[in-house]
Specification:
homodimer; 81 residues; alpha+beta; Mth169, Chain: A; three-stranded antiparallel β-sheet; elongated
């Protein structure tokens, strides 16, 4: 049995997000005036040979050990549709 | 009125995804044997001064003009929860 998990790793609020800022600038230059804010988030789709509950637990471990830096990142884990 | 939209820009199937491959390798080395595949996806959270329907239409435009390269990328747009 396999489960597809989506992990989103974003910056904690207050951390500088130069990629988001630059996308916002580019959108301003292109005339998208109604855009107020852009945040960039890194996302991983992981296919894992476990049931949902175990896969989520494993991904929690994966975030702590590899994908997220607790000083600057916050992450969320969900089952992908 | 503001709407928060989430845009996901991923690689079309068949395109090389070195970041995903390297995350998979790192997970193998760390002993996460049940992980079968990792895909990396870029995600943008955009706050936009429009109602939902108009915001989605604007983000479609944003993907075409700035965020996605139609040769290699596919994108999805959804209202963020």
């Amino acid at each position: 049995m396999t489960t597809e998990i989506e992990i989103q790793v974003g910056l904690k609020s207050g951390m500088a997000d130069p990629e988001g800022v630059n996308v916002k600038k580019a959108l301003d230059l292109l005339g998208f005036d109604s855009v107020k804010k852009v945040d960039s988030v890194k996302c991983y789709r992981i296919i894992i040979n476990k049931n949902e509950a175990e896969a989520i637990k494993e991904c929690e471990e994966i975030c702590k050990k590899l994908l997220a830096n607790p000083v600057v990142h916050e992450y969320s884990i969900s089952v992908a549709k």
